[in-house]
Specification:
The chain is an alpha/beta fold and 351 residues long. It has 13 helices and 15 strands. Helix 3 links the parallel strand 6 (86-88) and strand 7 (118-120). Helix 2 (73-79) runs parallel beside helix 3 (101-109), helix 6 runs antiparallel to helix 7 and helix 12 (316-323) packs across helix 13. The two termini are 17 Å apart. Keywords: Signal, Transport. It is found in: Cell envelope. It comes from Phycicoccus endophyticus. It holds the Pfam family Peripla_BP_2.
């Protein structure tokens, strides 16, 4: 199973309507690259104070060099027309450059080069030295789960805004609004939320068969099928299933209540037949994974799996749009992942 950190991490929704002055990306070929356009809303006055899980961060002036530690934070900046100086390398579901196609397309639309953004690998932990090397004047960690110790180290580099609601589980709307506040573009951020939510609403309205259906997002360790791993209601994947019109699995809701801070939980394989969900989503290496699970004496008793109401997700780039929701990834979610879910509802397994 991919770890939560490695999963955290579309077409531009406001590329035409929202164009704002972009921050410099930092040195490239000896010079600073910069992209700019006109604003559609007045910038907020500075200083601003932003609340988050570790307190309040005061940002004295409009930041011009923003680095990120949360995988989706760079998406939000780009959607607001701001080019980050540094961002984590997308090592799960990303493209060959360690980015995502939707991020690269957005940067191109505002006249920036994705290769000018420093990508640092965080698979072994936050690379403080590499972040410091980008000389940021603001660090964002809204879509992260940074610890207080990590936060304290980051604040020695630059003012830092951490996650606000739950580690790894701050809803994308809250991420966008908080980032908008931190960079002085709260009105633009609110419009971004409105437009993105409309994209979701329009997509869901086109599929009335989803209404009333329950869904669970699971994971399996093929070398140990004694348990069924389930992402809890605190995790962004089930949250996205809810946004796309599904009701949460009653089984997942019950298990999630035992530890509201956890993003995964386990169900004994002996109780697999009790997993209440009209459809089930899980990661798969290839199509044979689902067949192997169905043949397992216990796992195969999961009702949705046995009846063919499942998505055995083999395309990590598309699945990333569900675990890394942002205004940029959302169109991939509704155009490429939602049809898989609808297929599962209708009894045709999807991958």
């Amino acid at each position: 199973m991919p770890s939560r950190r490695r999963l955290l991490a579309a077409a531009p929704l406001l590329a035409a309507a929202l164009a704002v002055s972009a921050c410099s990306t930092g040195p490239s070929g000896g010079e600073e690259a910069q992209s700019s356009a006109s604003t559609t809303a007045p910038a907020d006055a500075f200083p601003v104070s932003v609340e988050h899980t570790y307190g309040t961060t005061t940002i004295e002036a409009a930041p011009t060099r923003v680095a990120t530690v949360g995988w989706a934070d760079a998406d939000t900046l780009a959607a607001l027309g701001i080019v980050p100086v540094g961002a984590p390398k997308i090592t799960w579901g990303g493209n060959e450059a360690g980015s995502t196609d939707w991020f690269d397309e957005q940067l191109a639309s505002i006249g920036a080069d994705p290769s000018d953004v420093t990508r640092y690998d965080d698979s072994a932990g936050i690379p403080f030295d590499k972040i410091a090397a980008t000389a940021p004047d603001l660090i964002l960690g809204l879509s992260s789960g940074i610890s207080e110790e990590d936060y304290d180290k980051l604040t020695k580099i630059a003012p830092t805004v951490a996650w606000t609601e739950k580690a790894w589980g701050t809803p994308w709307q809250e991420q966008v609004r908080t980032i908008g506040e931190a960079v002085g573009r709260s009105q633009d951020a609110e419009q971004l939320v409105t437009d993105t939510e409309q994209t979701i609403s329009d997509a869901v309205a086109a599929h009335p068969e989803i209404e009333g259906k329950t869904a669970a997002w699971a994971w399996f360790t093929t070398t140990d099928l004694s348990t069924v791993g389930l992402y809890t209601t605190s995790d962004l994947r089930p949250q996205m299933l809810t946004e796309l019109g599904f009701e949460p699995s009653p089984t997942v809701v019950e298990l999630s209540a035992k530890d509201p801070s956890a993003f995964t939980t386990n169900l004994s394989a002996e109780k697999a037949s009790s997993l209440q969900a009209d459809i089930i989503v899980f990661y798969a290496q290839d199509e044979s994974t689902a067949q192997a699970l169905k043949k397992n004496d216990l796992i195969g008793q999961i009702p949705a799996l046995a009846d063919g109401h499942y998505v055995a997700s083999t395309d990590n780039a598309v699945a990333l749009s569900m675990s890394l929701p942002s205004p940029l990834s959302m169109r991939t979610a509704v155009e490429e992942f939602l049809p898989k879910l609808v297929s599962a509802v209708n009894g045709t397994p999807a991958s």
